[in-house]
Design brief:
2 copies of one chain form a homodimer.
Chain A (H helix, E strand, L loop, with lengths): L1 H11 L9 H9 L1 E6 L4 E3 L7 E15 L5 E7 L4 E2 L10 E14 H10 L1 H27 L2 H15 L7 E3 L4 H8 L3 H13 L3 E5 L2 E4 L2 H8 L3
Antiparallel strand pairs in A: 1-6, 2-6, 3-4, 3-5, 3-6, 7-9, 8-9
Helix pairs in contact in A: 3-4, 5-7, 5-8, 6-7
Chain A binds a DNA duplex through helix 7.
Chain lengths: ~230, ~230
DNA sequence: CGCGTTGTTGACGAGTATCAACTATTGTGG
DNA sequence: CCACAATAGTTGATACTCGTCAACAACGCG
């Protein structure tokens, strides 16, 4: 119950709707549906028609892209509050996989865009969200092109630390597995594992369990994350 | 003179203005200026105000991004016909450097966006162009994350082959230097050089001069370009 | 023609992938 | 709730790729 209120807050305070009036929000509510998604299923697939857009209320998602030869590149991980499905194309350019049982707000794309046409605030918010996708991808590009394995892992931990909800920036909940991390950072699972071991040995992080990591030396982690 | 006609053609047949009426084009012309840029100078810098947008008529540009630590990631190379400066943000997320004396069409951003608001065709074209930037970046991400040095070089050659104007898909004009290629592919100049040598030895390309390469085995090149 | 810049090649070492064995964790049925 | 199996993660040995440093070659320009 307390969690449900927190979830609603996440919805209304999402960057996407920041600055919208009560009336606007009611119109949004008119073409919005709630959706539950089980971990292990897909929200939508690469190349499917982009009929809807989504806000993640709770749970965790993963954006991935598969090449012709079947190899996967993980593009991003989604936290509550994130907006998914803003695409300039009519088709999605990636698949969205559910890592943890999720609750989403689901908007009809055409209604959404139409409202955005009339509402400069929303329009601007959407534009900025889209821009952030590109900025993020460019940062990732830099990480893959320039950084070493353990620096890439720091980059991920730094990102997760900033984005996860709640006030605790130290304890990081790794809701993805090692293969997902590897495919995100352009590494193998073994190298990712070794990177964690190295960071642990150097006293920068503490690994409580494979999916629960604490940042011990935040500054050193940040330095490594933005190295090169 | 003949070249000038060709350049005009490039402007009017640009994907950006595809499907626009004569009247629309006249309005576009109203807030459009011609601009010449010397090789070695910047069209605009990262973080500068995005007041204008551009179409490249002739010459060659390079999109790059610099990290806090001063390291450079080349994002893309621009050919005649390409649209530059579509950004969701108010600031540019990258710098644009002129590799070869360029002729550009230069639009006032606000007028441009305002017309786009009224004109669904143009709006759609802009949206698609923006989408292509993301798609391209995602492809590059995949290349950096998954491919080997010589495969990345093939990926670049394949791209250049597809995009360069003219009918000759075999002879490739490398208007950037080895450092630019290295920073685009996340490699060092030595590795890039060795990759060219290997492809030459394997009979896939012929290197007429450092900036002039012929594709001998197109199929093999494509296979390597899309490997993994 | 000499000089600076750009590109190539070689030797070597650091870093990452691969293969394999092992350990920890999670899930399932009794 | 436990035992066991299946899955996920870690560690070690080794090979290969790529980066680094250094020398050399080719090109462009005054």
């Amino acid at each position: 119950m307390i969690q449900d209120i927190a979830q609603q807050e996440t919805f209304f305070h999402s960057r996407l709707f920041k600055g919208l009036s009560k009336e606007d929000m009611q119109e949004v509510a008119g073409f919005t549906k709630s959706k539950r998604l089980k971990a292990g299923s897909y929200l939508f697939r690469q190349h499917s028609k982009a009929t809807h857009a989504y806000t993640l209320i709770s749970g965790a998602l993963m954006l991935e892209r598969t090449s012709q030869s079947g190899r996967r590149q993980v593009i991003d991980f989604s936290h509550p509050g994130n907006f998914i499905g803003i695409t300039n194309n009519d088709e999605f350019e990636f698949s969205v996989y559910c890592l943890r049982d999720a609750h989403l707000q689901c908007y009809v794309r055409n209604n959404f865009l139409e409202l955005a046409d009339r509402n400069p605030v929303l329009k601007n918010n959407i534009r900025r969200t889209g821009s952030n996708v590109l900025t993020h991808t460019l940062d990732q590009l830099f990480a893959l092109g320039q950084k070493k394995a353990h620096e890439r892992v720091c980059y991920l931990l730094h990102e997760l630390s900033l984005r996860q909800s709640g006030t605790d920036r130290e304890t990081i909940d790794l809701f993805m597995n090692r293969q997902d991390i590897a495919d995100y950072l352009g590494l193998t699972i073994e190298t990712v594992s070794r990177a964690f071991s190295k960071l642990k040995k150097d006293g920068i992080i503490a690994v409580d369990s494979p999916h629960r990591v604490r940042i011990v030396e935040h500054e050193q982690l940040d330095t490594l994350a933005s190295a090169r």
